[in-house]
Structure formats: C-alpha cells, structure tokens
Amino acid sequence: xxxxxxxxxxxxxxPVPVEWVARHIFFYEAICIVSAIHxxxxxxxxxxxxxxRLHLTIFSNNMNTVDIxxxxxxxxxxxxxxxxxxxFLLSLNVDICIVYIITEQNAIADALSCRDFSRALLxxxxxxxxxxxxxx
Length: 136
Fold this sequence. Notes:
- The structure is a single chain.
- The strands form 2 sheets. The chain has a 3-stranded mixed β-sheet with strand order 1-2-5, with helices on both faces.
- It has a single domain (2-131), classed as Nucleotidyltransferase, domain 5 (2-Layer Sandwich), CATH 3.30.420.
- The longest helix is centred in the first third of the chain and has 20 residues, at 25-44.
- Helix content is 41%, strand content 19%.
- By secondary structure, the protein is an alpha/beta fold.
- α1 (25-44) packs parallel to α3 (79-91) and α4 (107-113) packs antiparallel against α5.
- The chain crosses the membrane at residues 20-41.
- This is RNase H type-1 domain-containing protein.
C-alpha cells in the first residue's frame, strides 16, 4: 500500500499484513485511503484550531474505492473503515473530496505500493519515503 503528498515530497509505504493476504485489492485501496486521511488529519491539523476548516483531496486510480467514499455506501466489510474515516474527519472539521484518476497519473503512489522505490524516486526526485501503519 502506498500514498504520497506531492506538495511535501513525502511518500509512504506499508506492507500488506500476512493475515490480509487473501483479501481483495479493493480492501487494501480502502485501507490506504483511510491511512492517508489519518496521516493528514493528525499531521496537518495539529497546529490549527478546530474552528478552521481544512479541505483534503485524495486522488485514487481505483474507482470502487472512490465510489464508496463518495457515496458512503459499501459492503458490510467496508462500513467500519468508512465510519472511522468519516467520524475522524467530522471530529477535526475536515472536508474531503476523493477523485478518480487514471493509473498513469498515479504513478508515484503505484510505485510506492509496489515497493518500487527507485521508480518512485525517479518520478519524484527528492521524495522522502517512510513507512506508515494503518489505523485499523
């Protein structure tokens, strides 16, 4: 799993836990978006008062993931992820927009998720790559 913050040249990678191996890629995509939300809210919200509304836009090349976060309608397995993310966003006064992009426009996140760090660094020179741990 991988996500990145272009403005800060920060990339994050997390290995898929062994107990999740049998799950569908859609689950990993949803976990990655929840992790990006968690990172953003805990990092960017730290210096602002709760009265200042923040706006977060996440780009994903997985249309199913975009759909569940935009519609808040998913299979029961995904409802705890959606509930966690929405409760977290509401508690910190953060608006979110999740947008679909084609895979070719998501090359750095794709490289991070495939552990292809050399490709990620070629695409974004100076990128700092770190591990993230999912909040589930």
